[in-house]
Amino acid sequence: MSTDNSDRKRSASPRGADNETKKGRLERFVAEQQLLSSQSIPTPHTPHVIQTQRLPDSLRKKILVTGGAGFVGSHLVDLLMSQGHEVVVLDNFFTGRKANVEHWLHHPNFSLVRHDVTQPILLEIDQIYHLACPASPPHYQYNPVKTIKTSTMGTINMLGLAKRVKARILLASTSEIYGDPTVHPQPESYWGNVNTIGPRACYDEGKRVAETMMYAYKNQNGVSVRIARIFNTFGPRMHPNDGRVVSNFIIQSLQNKDITIYGSGAQTRSFQYVDDLVKGLHALMNGDYDLPVNLGNPDEYSIKDFATKIRDMTQSKSEIIFLPKVADDPSQREPDISTARRELNWEPRVSVEEGLRKTIEYFRGEVDAAGEIVPTGPDASKPKGAA
Ligand SMILES: NC(=O)c1ccc[n+]([C@@H]2O[C@H](COP(=O)([O-])OP(=O)(O)OC[C@H]3O[C@@H](n4cnc5c(N)ncnc54)[C@H](O)[C@@H]3O)[C@@H](O)[C@H]2O)c1
């Protein structure tokens, strides 16, 4: 009988130690989960950590971001997640990439849905940022019929959802609705100069009718709408095969390849940094003003000066070469942002130089990871690379 007791004593201590370890491990696991639900996790694409606030139920919104795996959408997701909201990203990954949002995949406030906005979807949400649509000309011209469907059927579907669940909806419209403008700079009251049958029409006219639908739903059904007319935006997470001047000039400069300008280079553009844009989108969504608002940086550059600036900043040996002008390429573009200043108390804060420094660093990483990136030309092309 004595052996029973000693056996019990002998076995009690290792089992106890085992229990201790298990308890300790569980506590550590819970602490780790708590930590993970208060921040993003570092990934190769987004190595810095973003903290998330804890919001009380009364202040926490359920927010849908269509196109949230894209360039602008993913930065907007970072802002909304950091504020402590629940965010649902809906994306078909045509030009968007999972890598743009994978630092949130573990977070309890975040959901990622692979879905095409041309199909209806039922969700319970409070706000919709409707960004789904390819933005770069080679990509939106690759399948113009699909681009039209995305802007028309996609926007109708999101408006139907907004109407059903009484959510406010913000449309990411574009300066392209001004076409090749005859008024400079462009105020929101300018009606535009668009070629309805040109190669850019699938995008420009798609966005114009999307704006029309927004006000039809507002006037007929009382849907709460917001419209941002976004001017050229740049920053980290731009698609490397985007084919527009910022990404192409940086990628060409970093690889010491010829910098290609289509046309004389005298055409002008204004460039805003993505952090400024997402703050503007947020201010517009949460303010009272419900007419279209230009969001852009009025700092205007000729394309030739812009190419030279990027070549200097990257200390590149690239030559600048001139190729034939692209059809319907607007000759000048500069936002009048007096409405945004007055109604949203918003104006861009990040200088083009500062934004370029961060964007050059991002593309340096992309070029290093890929070995070589061949920039996309102005012709229609399918986005390359994995989602
Ligand atoms: N970046 C700019 O300079 C700029 C300028 C003016 C307007 N905008 C507008 O802002 C929005 C975002 O632009 P971006 O630069 O982030 O472009 P982007 O191509 O990086 O992002 C668009 C996102 O929408 C997704 N998408 C496209 N079609 C879809 C569909 N049918 N269903 C679901 N998802 C779909 C893409 O996969 C991508 O993730 C677009 O609506 C664009 O028109 C952008």
TrEMBL record:
<comment type="pathway">
    <text>Nucleotide-sugar biosynthesis; UDP-alpha-D-xylose biosynthesis; UDP-alpha-D-xylose from UDP-alpha-D-glucuronate: step 1/1.</text>
</comment>
<keyword id="KW-1133">Transmembrane helix</keyword>
<dbReference type="InterPro" id="IPR036291">
    <property type="entry name" value="NAD(P)-bd_dom_sf"/>
</dbReference>
<keyword id="KW-0520">NAD</keyword>
<keyword id="KW-0963">Cytoplasm</keyword>
<keyword id="KW-0472">Membrane</keyword>
<dbReference type="Pfam" id="PF16363">
    <property type="entry name" value="GDP_Man_Dehyd"/>
</dbReference>
<comment type="similarity">
    <text>Belongs to the NAD(P)-dependent epimerase/dehydratase family. UDP-glucuronic acid decarboxylase subfamily.</text>
</comment>
<keyword id="KW-0210">Decarboxylase</keyword>
<dbReference type="GO" id="GO:0048040">
    <property type="term" value="F:UDP-glucuronate decarboxylase activity"/>
</dbReference>
<feature type="compositionally biased region" description="Basic and acidic residues">
    <location>
        <begin position="1"/>
        <end position="10"/>
    </location>
</feature>
<dbReference type="InterPro" id="IPR044516">
    <property type="entry name" value="UXS-like"/>
</dbReference>
<keyword id="KW-0333">Golgi apparatus</keyword>
<feature type="domain" description="NAD(P)-binding">
    <location>
        <begin position="64"/>
        <end position="359"/>
    </location>
</feature>
<keyword id="KW-0456">Lyase</keyword>
<protein>
    <recommendedName>
        <fullName>UDP-glucuronate decarboxylase</fullName>
        <ecNumber>4.1.1.35</ecNumber>
    </recommendedName>
</protein>
<dbReference type="GO" id="GO:0032580">
    <property type="term" value="C:Golgi cisterna membrane"/>
</dbReference>
<keyword id="KW-0735">Signal-anchor</keyword>
<keyword id="KW-0812">Transmembrane</keyword>
<feature type="region of interest" description="Disordered">
    <location>
        <begin position="1"/>
        <end position="25"/>
    </location>
</feature>
<dbReference type="InterPro" id="IPR016040">
    <property type="entry name" value="NAD(P)-bd_dom"/>
</dbReference>
